[in-house]
Amino acid sequence: MNQIDTLSVNAIRILSADAIQKANSGHPGLPLGCAAAAYELWAHHMNHNPANPKWENRDRFILSGGHGSMLLYSLLHLFGYGNLSKEDLMNFRQLDSKTPGHPEYGHTVGVEATTGPLGAGMGMAVGMAMAEAHLESVFNKENYPVVDHYTYVLGGDGCMMEGISSEAFSLAGTLGLSKLIVLYDSNRISIEGSTDIAFRENVQERMQAFGFQTITVEDGNDIDAIGKAIEAAKADTEHPSFITIKTQIGFGCPAKQGKASAHGEPLGVENVEALRKNLNWPSEEPFFVPEEVYKNYSEIAEQKAEVEAAWNVMFAAYCEEYPEMEALWNQYHNAKAGEALKDDAGFWAKQEKPEASRAISGRLINYIKDVLPNLFGGSADLAPSNKTNMKDAGDFSKEDRAGRNLHFGVRELAMAAIGNGIMLHGGLRAYVSTFFVFSDYCKPMARLSALMGVPLTYVFTHDSIGVGEDGPTHEPIEQMAALRAMPNFHVFRPCDATETEAAWYSAVTSEHTPTALVLTRQNLEPMAGSSREALKGGYIIDDCEGTPELILIASGSEVALAVHAKETLAAEGQKVRVVSMPCMDLFEEQSEEYKESVLPREVRRRVAVEALGSFGWDKYTGLDGKIIAMESFGASAPAGLLFKKFGFTVEHVVEVAKSLK
């Protein structure tokens, strides 16, 4: 390693240590240990342009060990990304800073994914590599490799312990995602001490079993060896690659190097001083970086810009020779492309016969795929039940990158992370699917979808005790409340075809909010009053003359129940309004005037009906209303018997309504 490389590597270490010390909070171990590997990758192998962080053909880098965020922030500052200033580093972990404790997508320029939950970045990296492989098959022509880039992900022992990594890497190996390169920070230290206390497996042999090429670098400070490993990874066009880089956590700090205490606490003022001396750093001033280091990073950044400039020339020639591909490219990269469905009569066709919303959704997916050729998705081994298969669209595989149907296997957690990665990559509109009860497996990654503002679509079927004979293990109860509790997450439970159409339209036109479609196994009767008003989340589906005396509120299959109960009550002279509430989240986004027009405060006699947990409905029923919902787990029996057993009948709704004073 020459002098300027040594200084450039150590600049990452010093900036990281200073920022963490100033904040008196953070994780210095990873930045100190991985600085050399990160520098070698970013400076000499990765194609990226700090002047244009969103260049479509850039290599992607995900820091799966998000606790080591100062490594990434130091790189972004030194390379000149988004004017991330020295002052921003000084404000690490402070309120409203550009440098939060863990990297946040959309908040800091150059951050490709929000990471922090260990292993999540590994799953998202797999999704990005899948997106690259598919787009390459769609757009590349002879002499025009317009999609040709790598996905790099850096993580440590914690990422490898989390089950999501095994799920994701098993699929990556099966698919032969050769442009996925994993850098494994192997320092054999976790928060509680040596990894020997809980993690003694042979990680390389596990990765080989998954189908990865495995490479080992014995010295994490040997940038030449690291560079050769990266080039060897690129040379393998059949397998994803896993590079084990043996590092020392907290490298350079004499009192902390190789110790668990280096992981998640500031080094301490005296230890930062010792770090400077040990690294022969030329100044004791905090956050000082020599001008020759900034010059080195700037010159590298200029070289990176030239790579994009060459790509731009190639892309312009490509567009000239293939104008139809330019139009397709623009369609793929248009976030508003789904709005083409707004006035599409075929999409909004009225359904005349009872049908399960999962089947309606399946039909809509096959309609949407012809309007949005970049629709890309699938299920966790449940496509025949979820109805998520796109007909005549092929299956994405190692042998066929052009296929649009994804087969995730029984890997719900990784599936959701991969879906996030596909969306983060850009150019594709992704959906993922499983049974609603298994949304529990997806939730940590659904939370990241919401936090990142990534509009991934979740198709959750078998939505209630209507699952029937499979029994309580497969009958969701509390899952709806859990998803509704999440900020920036739309949960739709449609009552018929029209509301299912609205749900899908909302999902594919959303730019910053993920959507869950919660769909039935059992048939739903078409509702005469259902309409596109469902796009407001809640609306009057069946009304009375004048001001109502009673309001029945329901979602999904229980809307029909409420309408029929209203018929009985109206025959007895009661003035009843039925409100369909397919999406509480969207309803809450409406104006106060609109919400008051649907649920006037003066009408205090209210009954909510939903064959799921009651949590959350009280904000609509108030102190004087009642909720008909599940207060226990379900049971194993035909769906009709279960609805009767748990009180989801017209007679019971009428009885509860009459009990209100």
TrEMBL record:
The chemistry this enzyme catalyses reads: D-sedoheptulose 7-phosphate + D-glyceraldehyde 3-phosphate = aldehydo-D-ribose 5-phosphate + D-xylulose 5-phosphate
Tell me which cofactor or cofactors this protein depends on.
Answer: Co(2+); Mg(2+); Ca(2+); Mn(2+)
Q: Where does thiamine diphosphate bind?
A: H67, G116, P117, L118, G158, N187, H263, F438
Q: Which PROSITE patterns match?
A: TRANSKETOLASE_1 (PS00801), TRANSKETOLASE_2 (PS00802)
Output the Gene Ontology terms for molecular function. Answer: metal ion binding; transketolase activity
Protein known as: Transketolase
UniProt-listed NCBIfam families = tktlase_bact (TIGR00232)
By sequence similarity, the record places it as follows:
Belongs to the transketolase family.
